[in-house]
Design brief:
With 182 residues, this protein is of the alpha/beta class. It has seven helices and six strands, in the order E-H-E-E-H-E-H-E-H-E-H-H-H. It has a single domain, classed as Glycogen Phosphorylase B (Rossmann fold, 3-Layer(aba) Sandwich), CATH 3.40.50.2000. The mean pLDDT is 88.
């Protein structure tokens, strides 16, 4: 058994900005001293430098940008994907995480709560509320079996978002709207 199997492995994918919540995530993880976790941060740093973020623990691995084809491999290595956004639209990262069979720890903003069901496919917290994010992280670390169960449930739910199904539902909606206007 690998030494890393004793740690909760979290993954953050996105720009390291306040709107994407990375500073909140790093503050929440900083409060978890002594608990076994590892965070991998993937994203285009752009104009932001790691030194501009809250202190990064030695348990954080700042990877930077990676080709999209490598994202599934990183997701499969994680126990949970964290989406601590303060602003978000649909949130492809959450859907991709669910399709990879990973639980999502996400903020209650934008489309995240439409995808992530509390306690079913992941855990939710208020955007920008570090204490709630910290509690979600503690819960994930303390119950890896539950996290795994949520990941399996997320995989089932993500199957509803296939391109074929979306195309059929969009076509049906357009037909209803155009035929209803006659």
């Amino acid at each position: 058994m690998s030494f890393l199997h004793n740690f909760s492995k979290f993954l953050f994918i996105g720009r390291p900005t306040l709107s994407k919540g990375l500073p909140d995530l790093l503050l929440a993880l900083g409060a978890l001293r002594g608990l076994p976790w590892i965070l991998t941060v993937v994203g285009d740093w752009g104009e932001i430098r790691p030194r501009e973020l809250p202190p990064v623990e030695s348990q954080c691995h700042l990877v930077g940008a990676v080709p999209h084809r490598d994202i599934p491999v990183l997701m499969n290595e994680a126990d949970a994907i964290i989406v601590p956004s303060r602003y978000e639209n649909f949130c492809n990262v959450a859907l991709e995480a669910m399709a990879a069979g990973r639980a999502v720890l996400g903020s209650r903003c934008g489309g995240i709560p439409d995808l992530v069901e509390e306690g079913v496919t992941g855990l939710l917290f208020a955007p920008g509320v570090v204490q709630e994010l910290e509690l979600a992280l503690r819960t994930a670390i303390r119950d890896p079996a539950e996290l795994s169960r949520m990941g399996r449930s997320g995989w089932q739910k993500a199957r509803r978002y296939s391109w074929n199904r979306i195309a059929l539902e969009t076509d049906a909606l357009f037909r209803l709207l155009t035929e209803g206007g006659r």
